[in-house]
Design brief:
- Helix 1 crosses helix 8 and helix 7 packs across helix 8.
- The protein contains 18 helices and no strands.
- With 453 residues, it is mainly alpha-helical.
- The chain starts with 13 loop residues before the first helix and ends in a 5-residue tail after the last helix.
- The N terminus is likely disordered.
- The relative contact order is 0.20.
- The longest helix has 34 residues.
- The chain is globular, with a radius of gyration of 21 Å.
- Bound molecules: phenylalanine.
């Protein structure tokens, strides 16, 4: 029972911290979700709004979370109990733990698809297939009531197993090595994709903005995705921040993680959109976009067989380094607030989330007639978590640090003996005090119709 509050894990090295936070940030969000929602909401216009949110809101909220976590040395809920005892701030933590449940439920399903695509790649599943067959392969998989459920449960099992091993051995080790390999694969894919005939239309779609295409829903999704892709708004980085040692420079960690995450999303866009246009696939295709686009690219590529195996293996691993960070939010909460052991907490969290995940998976097929506000269960979990819970969580986290934590404590915790200059500190305080909360509030109010643009 030494694995309780008394002995908290910490990350071993400076690179370990960045690797773990980047491992959390880089995942299905960058490679699966970013292209498909950018495709739905107009390409470049969406990209630019998303980038603006990353800089103006993502960066400061990420620093805020790490500050809260490292200062309090607690989980997403406990952190607020330590820093603001006897106040309702702790409910932000409950919001975060709930978001973790919802996100991991559909995340595990998509990761399961990715595992199936490793299997298909190994079996040389794409080389003999026409574009139509590649499309129906995806539909048949996702609509099946058995296979994707088993794959999702397998993925959850692996996630749970790594979380049981613990932060240092589990999380740090697996994130260190594979990220650079992922970047190389994406660059290779991008080169192939850009050289396809008709690729230019895809590059124009991704980089030449037509802001008239932008809708209120598009702006909300860009905001939600800025949070989702950087793992913000639900306490993942509060939890990870609590494992960071006092001499780590948080500001440089935040900047490096944000750059890595953004570069990988843009690379994924360059790998996918030229191919989408070259193969005449609709950019608005939805959650299947990468699964039906990329096999066509592998099909035509020298070495495509090896590339496709490597790509889906790395996608699955990237999903894993994110899913463990999501599960860790719930596990740290169970462990510290209910005094459970790491093992028991992980079993409980994994089982509960897996049950929700089964519903997500089935909602693509047999349960598809059941919809809520026009969305199936899978899309509902995604929508509520990314577009509602994360931005609301992020708003309160920013307000907490900007208004209640105070400049002095922020300086102590972020500067490590004075590394954050006065100007940077003032800029940060200004962003968390005003810009981030006001921007989030405007986007949310616009959605519910309290404001209309
Ligand atoms: N950032 C991860 C991704 O882009 C998903 C994630 C969301 C992880 C929220 C942790 C918390 O895939």
């Amino acid at each position: 029972m030494s694995d309780k509050n008394q002995s908290r894990d910490t990350f071993g090295s400076k690179f370990g911290v960045i690797a773990a936070a980047a491992g959390s940030a880089v995942g299905l969000g960058n490679i699966w979700k970013f292209p498909y929602i950018a495709g739905i909401y107009g390409g470049a216009a969406f990209l630019f709004v998303y980038l603006a949110f990353i800089v103006a809101i993502g960066l400061p909220v990420m620093l805020s979370e790490l500050i809260i976590g490292r200062k309090s040395q607690r989980n997403a809920f406990g952190a607020f109990k330590v820093l603001a005892p006897g106040t309702p701030w702790k409910y932000i933590g409950i919001l975060g733990v709930s978001a973790a449940f919802l996100i991991l439920s559909f995340y595990g399903v998509v990761a399961g698809w990715s595992i199936q695509y490793i299997i298909l790649s190994v079996k040389d599943g794409f080389s003999s297939k026409s574009p139509e067959e590649i499309t129906s392969l995806f539909t048949a998989l996702t609509e099946s009531p058995v296979k994707p459920v088993i794959l999702q449960l397998t993925f959850m099992l692996i996630t749970g197993a790594i979380v049981i091993i613990g932060v240092k051995k589990g999380i740090e080790k697996y994130t260190k090595i594979l990220m650079p390999v992922l970047v190389v694969i994406l660059i290779g894919l991008s080169i192939k994709s850009v050289s396809l005939e008709g690729a230019k239309a895809g590059l124009d779609f991704l980089f030449k903005p037509d802001f008239s295409k932008l809708t209120g829903d598009g702006v909300l999704s860009a905001l939600g995705h800025a949070f989702f892709t950087l793992s913000l708004g639900m306490g993942t980085l509060i939890t990870y921040g609590s494992y960071i040692s006092k001499n780590n420079n948080l500001v440089s960690t935040v900047i490096q993680v944000t750059i890595a995450d953004t570069v990988i999303a843009i690379l994924a866009g360059i790998a996918i959109f030229p191919a989408v246009f070259a193969f005449g696939i609709a950019p608005t295709e939805g959650p299947g976009l990468i699964f039906i686009t990329l096999p066509n690219v592998f099909h035509q590529m020298p070495g495509g067989f090896v590339f496709s195996i490597l790509f889906f293996v790395l996608l699955t691993v990237a999903a894993l380094t994110s899913s463990i960070s999501i599960l860790e939010v719930v596990v740290a909460y169970f462990k510290e607030e209910f005094n459970m052991g790491r093992k028991g907490a992980t079993y409980l969290a994994t089982i509960l989330i897996s049950i929700l995940g089964v519903l997500c998976s089935l909602s693509m097929g047999v349960l598809s007639p059941y919809t809520f506000f026009g969305l199936n269960f899978f899309d509902l979990m995604d929508w509520i978590s990314a577009n509602l819970l994360l931005p609301i969580g992020g708003l309160f986290i920013a307000v907490f640090v900007g208004w209640f934590f105070g400049r002095k404590k922020v300086r102590e915790e972020s500067a490590n003996g004075g590394k954050l200059s006065g100007v940077a500190l003032s800029a940060f305080i200004f962003l968390v005090k005003f810009i981030a909360p006001i921007a989030i509030a405007i986007v949310l109010m616009n959605k519910v119709g309290l404001l209309n643009f």
